[in-house]
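Sample pair:
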Amino acid sequence: MMRLAALSVIVPDYAAGLDFYVTRLGFTLLEDVDQGHKRWITIAPPGGEQGCRIVLARAENAAQQVTIGAQGAGRVWLFLETDDFARDHARMLAAGVVFEEAPRHEAYGIVAVWRDPFGNRWVLLERRGA
């Protein structure tokens, strides 16, 4: 068996990443291990603790700093699935999340594109029949 266990999102600093994802969005802080020169921080969306984790990776040099918000090359590359689009859309709006579009209904479900404060493009998705 294999599974995708984690992916990294590059942030300008750990505090900014934790403030947005954990404090504002309510993601769960799973690990925060000081490794001396860096920290191992993993988070997961509410209720998603058993799924793929996000590693908050602090940009440590100029080459990494230019990738903040550009990991997806301008495309949506992160997909946040929910069992209740209306609930989570409203909660995210209240937390100051900027949506690029109004929710739309597609053959596969309800979807809207949003950006985190670092420039990463995400989709909030409730699959049809979820």
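DSSP finds three helices and nine strands in the chain.
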